[in-house]
Specification:
mainly alpha; 5 helices; globular
């Protein structure tokens, strides 16, 4: 069968024309936006470290770096709380999940994880 034309490579290189930077591109280099973006990247790196390498210490260190960059980012506390929960460190998990809920009261995932952690803690005490 013939291959559709959109799947065949071009016979000559496509021309590359330089574009003017958009007015919004300056937003990427403003200092006020860099810490939250970097913190988000560190959160992802920490989660990957835990998922792939099972490296709890490295994961928590990376979360600490993210927290240092952006102390008011509820995602840092949510994800670190989830890692503490996986490691059965319930008090640490609860501290982080409480902070995530405090920073963003309508953060339903943090609220749900917080309640589950409280349930697990109470179950372990009895």
């Amino acid at each position: 069968e013939p291959v559709p034309s959109f799947l065949t490579p071009p016979t000559r290189p496509l021309p590359v024309t330089p574009k003017k930077p958009s007015p919004n591109s300056s937003l990427l280099v403003k200092p006020c936006l860099l810490p939250p973006l970097r913190a988000n990247a560190l959160i992802k790196a920490a989660c990957l470290s835990m998922t792939i390498d099972q490296d709890l210490a490295g994961c928590l260190y990376t979360f600490q770096q993210a927290q240092t960059l952006c102390q008011d980012c509820p995602d840092v506390y949510l994800h670190r709380g989830q890692v503490h929960l996986l490691a059965d460190q319930l008090e640490e998990a609860l501290n982080d999940l409480n902070e995530a809920s405090k920073l963003k009261p309508d953060f339903s995932v943090a609220q749900a994880q917080r309640l589950y952690t409280m349930y697990r803690r109470d179950l372990n005490e009895n």
